[in-house]
Amino acid sequence: VCGHTVGPYLREMLDAWFSGNSARALEMHQKALPVFTGTFRTQGAILTKAALNLMGLPGGHTRLPLVDATPAQIAQLREDLLAGGVTLTS
Known about the structure:
It contains 4 helices and no strands. The protein is mostly helical. It has one domain.
């Protein structure tokens, strides 16, 4: 789920790990950790769609039985994404 918002971080982290550079892999993990935390504060699809919308990408709305993120959840998610270095457009 987090690959939608921090895919390049994950790619770099995995490349570092599999090339034996565990220090770089840990650095990338720690850089993305606020995004991981933010995405899973509630059900992952809800906040992933909200994150994509904040990034200016077509996240859209959730389908039942899920509901869209609340304004408070979106505000917290915005802080989490920014702390993780994600570029937002809205």
